[in-house]
Design a protein that fits this description.
Layout (H helix, E strand, L loop, with lengths): L2 H14 L5 H34 L16 E10 L1 E13 L5 E7 L3 H9 L3 H4 L3 E3 L3 H6 L7 E3 L12 H13 L14 H22 L7
Helix pairs in contact: 1-2, 2-7
């Protein structure tokens, strides 16, 4: 039994209490027997409900303002699943014009994850300039198109501020998705939960940006 469920079951068991005649105790035990299956079903029920809500959302591309050309910023953000030994990285591609998230991916901080992220980016955003930090993975990702890739190093005064837009989006993600907070007791209990929360927040983030900047329809 998972520890959280076990803890709630123990609380219910304490509620049974001691003392009283046999009939009263049997009634309390019967109430506990009815409560335990409900506790065991709760995590699965919530997960199915979250998946249903996410499935009802439109495709992410439909929430992004259409364009014929744009610049994007790519970045990755650290988090963990259950314990800090189970690390995960949230990769996002942000439009510099509309400040909307074009694509995101959750996985390790490696080239395979970078490829998986970039495959989700629609063609209009793949053709423009790409701004990233100095992570070497990006050099390997854009080795065939080095002219459109701009590495923004903190030591370079000319480029170090070019990723400020995505840093702002990362800050909004940390505030909107409690799993990503730096100093918090909240954490993702599974990769599914993290992805569901990200799906939900990013869709609504894109819609809010569209309302703030209604002129960002570039066709």
């Amino acid at each position: 039994m998972p520890s959280g469920v076990h803890a709630r079951a123990q609380i219910a068991l304490l509620d049974i209490g001691e003392g009283g005649d046999d009939l009263e105790r049997l009634e309390r035990e019967d109430a506990f027997d009815r409560y335990l299956p409900h506790v065991l079903r709760q995590p699965q029920h919530r997960l199915r409900l979250a998946q249903k809500n996410v499935d009802a959302l439109p495709p992410l591309q439909e929430t992004v303002a259409p364009c014929t050309w744009d610049e994007v910023v790519v970045d990755e953000m650290w988090t963990f699943i259950v314990s800090k030994s189970e690390q995960a990285w949230v990769w996002i591609v942000l439009s510099r014009r509309s400040l909307q998230v074009v694509a995101f991916f959750v996985g390790p901080r490696d080239l395979e994850s970078a490829h998986a992220l970039w495959q989700q980016v629609p063609s209009p955003w793949r053709d423009g300039l790409v701004f990233t930090d100095g992570l070497r993975v990006y050099e390997a990702l854009f080795q065939d198109t080095p002219l459109k890739h701009c590495r923004c190093l903190k030591s370079d005064k000319d480029t170090r501020g070019e990723t400020s837009e995505v840093e702002g989006a990362n800050n909004a993600l940390r505030q909107g998705v409690s799993y990503l907070g730096r100093k918090t007791l909240s954490f993702a209990r599974s990769l599914h939960w993290l992805r569901y929360r990200l799906h939900w927040f990013i869709h609504h983030w894109n819609l809010r940006q569209a309302k703030k900047h209604p002129s960002h329809s570039f066709r």
